[in-house]
Amino acid sequence: MVTNPTRRSSISIGRVAVAFLCLTLTLVGLFRISVDVDVLKLLPGNLPQVHGLGLFLKYFAQADQLILTVESNTPETTDSVADAIARRLESRPDLVQQVVSRPPWESDPGEFAELVAYLALNRSPEDFTKFANRLAPENRAATLAETLERITDSSSPQEVALAAYDPYGILPSLQGSGFLSSTHKSEFASTDGTFRVLYLKAAHPFKNYKATTQWISEIRQATGEWLHIPGVRLGFTGEPAFVADISGTMQWDMSSSGFGTMLLIALLFWSCYRRMAPLLSLQFMLVAIFVLTLGAAGLFLKQLTVIGVGCAAIMIGLSVDYGYFIYQRSIHHTGTLRELQAQCWQYIAWTSGTTAAAFFSLNLSSLPGLSQLGNLVGMGVVIGAIAMLVLFAPLTMWRRRSSPSLHSPIAIERLLSTPSFLKAGFYLTLGLVVVLLGALFTNGFPKVDFSPSCLRPRVSEAYTALERLSERLMDNRNLLHLVVEGATEEEVRVRLQAAEEALQKARQEHRLASYLTPLFFWPNPTGQKSNLPIAGSLLSQITELKAAASQAGFTADALALTEQVLTQWHSWATRPASVAALWPENRSSRWILDRLTQRTPERFLAAGIVTPISGQERAAIQSRQLPGTYLVNWPQLGAELQQVVTKELVLIMFTLTGLVLLILAFALRSLKALACFVFTTTLVLLCLVSVMSLLGMTWNLFNLAAVLLLLGTGTDYSILILLSLRKNGGDVSETQKELFLVIALCAASAATGFGTIGWANHLGLAALGQTCALGLLLDALVSLFLLPRMWVWLNSASISTKPIPG
Amino acid sequence: MRLAVLLSLMLLASSAVAQEAVDMTPVKKWIALQKDLRTVEADFVQTRSIRALRSPVSSPGKLWLTHTGEIRWEIGVPPKTVFLRRKDTCLLIQPQKQRYTVLSAETDSAFNPQSFPMMELPIASSFADFAKRFEVLQIKPDGKSCQLEFLPREPQARKFLQSIRVQFDTEDGRPHSFEVLTKDGAALKNEFSNVRLNQKLDRAVFDFDLNGYQSDSQK
């Protein structure tokens, strides 16, 4: 054959150009990719619980604060360690911008005046005019007498203290606001003093998760000397600690499961073929497929979630199937490379097509975490199939030419081809299936657990510290968070008033135990505008007000707050007019308001707390749906997910089943073959459910998706067997010779891939891995040993007289 | 140096001797007597001294206690504030304003009588229990009367409290006065008179007709 040198050269240039383009795109993709540890990114953002909880965590969970907890057996030790750590960190401005170890108003009570001035100014104009009248010369004596009477007759220390230092009643009544009741709860120390909390703000904003991890590590170093004192326990929690914890475990999960899968695949290959060169080629291909897929993912996805990290092991475990298939074929192949590629193409196209379809179908789910996993693995499977056919097949053929001994069948292949192996396998698998179906009948189906526990890491120091914090200070875990958002202060105020009314009604109807809205602390722009001119003029009366109070029996101390508030009002009244509402600015005010209110250029948010009555949570949430108002917590998120996602997954499952059956109808062109497929798949799913029940596993958000993956992945084995049986005219021994080793290897590799993520730190990902690994093994057993018998039985009339081995 | 060490040792020794020298007998006896208390009924005058006021303010009141934990504590004649506790219900009532607040054990510190300036009887179930919960600062016997000054061991309370003083009758255990002193210089003293021990109490005293009253209960 004469080859045109110009044509050959242009083909080479074309290949180099394609390789260069692939490399460039991969590099661009790899540089673009980053990780996102936000677990809510795994969930459907259109659900009210997810949206509301997302707002709460983003704006009110103090994302820039590290919470450092100190615990010991005595309050004295705890105090001395907490104070020493606070001093040490305060001396490190390069590391920490602010250390708050005690309520800011305790160290500077004078700062409280600004908040009082603000709260009083938020009164309605009518209410403020009434208050101003109480200060008028003719009313002062009566106002002070009334305050004295309250001091004398009250049995509440809080009321006495407020009245004594606010004799003119500037501060609006806290009675009924709900804030008096919880004032004894501290964010800083437990009641017995053995547990203290420090809030640390980083010196600089974090650029990425690596900067966060580095900062946490430096904080640990700075507090290292107290970490090892006997009896003293330090804990690190809050958003930065979670980011450091989860991103660290994500990296570990990804690398350990990926490398673990590669290693186990290498061992499997070596134990079967004992050839180094093809093993190295296969490993190289797997790494290349992984890098190409990650690069492709980087081009299409901006951030990799905790679930996405499981893709490495899964796609390696699946892509290797095509490598095994090509390699096994090449052993017995006597034709050209193109003939080998053509033979393999038919099988690989059908199997990779169904697998990719299954994974891409996860996009139909509203769970972004699952969609991402589906896209990553789907891309990986397609890239893997192409790369194995285009690159690995030529490599295999080249090795085969240079090593003729490849022609001889290997020992394990000979063993798997024996009739006695098929017979023993059939009886053992049948026995196993009978036992598992019996167990399913006795034990029933696994329980369903849609609680958000599957979203959390298996081991996390930050979670442990947070749980301890909740135990020792205040347990908010079962409370509902009220989150109200709006475009303007006035809009949020109106929504808060509506929420307050709805909650009041729900409380009267016994659908909730109590509630606390931040309406008391929310600015009233209309009131402020109307009240400020009157408030600003009151400072001119301070001398007379002091004299009247002194005459009534109050000391100079009692008027300190009044004077500070009047000065603050005067300062606000005399500053340049602004259309924006007034917000207090000092450290103490910000500390209090940051927990209840948040402002960004685009939106305003307010947060409150609702104590539900056990069992009435849904009723409380559904009592009145208000725009921009959410009642959220983690358990309710789980309940909402269970309601929405179960329906959704069932729908996807039916769609996917239909899709797979359609593909198979084209591939197999036989109703009996389809019946075999449906029967074996059903059998596999029932056996899987039984094993899960026996192992005490539960269905959760993630392993429910395993059923979808099994439909796409595990069915490959049935398809291969059915295609081969059809090609060989029902000759089971030929199919056995052709496919048993390859399917055994594929199943072992894919189960290894999923199995390695069964130990992932993310509990949802781990459950998905365990369920898929079990399902694949069961699928391989049923496909190898039961499916051929069934196919032969169904087709006994039309099959030639070749005997069935065993 | 040696002299300093010697002086330190002497100081330590004298302090130990002083601690040992505190005779706890009156306290032990008082706590033992409380075991026999079934009911207490008394009048009192509540005097409050705070730094914001040039002179203390006083108000008369009445109290009823039972050994099962029921309390009625009225301030003012006629009552302006009534604190009422029955089993797990706690009410703060303002009869003149016709308003009331239901206090919750979980969320209101005021549910705990120690947060209110009131005395509960028995103050402890035994001397061991008393010693576990309180630190005795001083005991001043004076004939038939004895003044006990103590401080709760709970760190949160110690942050605000200077001390608590109780004056009682060493023979029958009846309280003469109960005073709470806080670290900011404030004091609240209840001086009891007309104390009646173990009298049969009308159960209706722990009831209150709230018809027509408006609730100020916490949300």
Task: Give a description of the structure.
- The complex is a heterodimer of chains A (806) and B (219).
- Chain A has 806 residues and is of the alpha+beta class.
- Chain A folds into 4 domains: 62-103 and 186-237, Multidrug efflux transporter AcrB pore domain (Alpha-Beta Plaits), CATH 3.30.70; 109-184 and 525-580, no CATH class; 243-455 and 636-794, Multidrug efflux transporter AcrB transmembrane fold; 478-523 and 582-632, 2-Layer Sandwich (Alpha-Beta Plaits).
- In chain A, strand 9 (597-599) and strand 10 (604-612) form a beta hairpin.
- The longest helix of chain A has 35 residues, at 239-273.
- Chain B has 4 helices and 12 strands; from the N terminus they run H-H-E-E-E-E-E-E-H-E-E-H-E-E-E-E.
- Chain B has helices at 2-21, 25-34, 127-133, 155-160; strands at 39-49, 57-66, 71-75, 81-86, 89-94, 99-103, 134-142, 145-152, 161-169, 175-182, 187-197, 214-215.
- Chain B has a 12-stranded mixed beta sheet.
- The radius of gyration of chain B is 20 Å and the shape is globular.
- Residues 1-20 and 106-115 of chain B have low confidence and may be disordered.
- Classes of the chains: A alpha+beta (806), B alpha+beta (219).
- At the A-B interface, helix 7, helix 8, helix 19 and strand 8 of A face strand 2 of B.
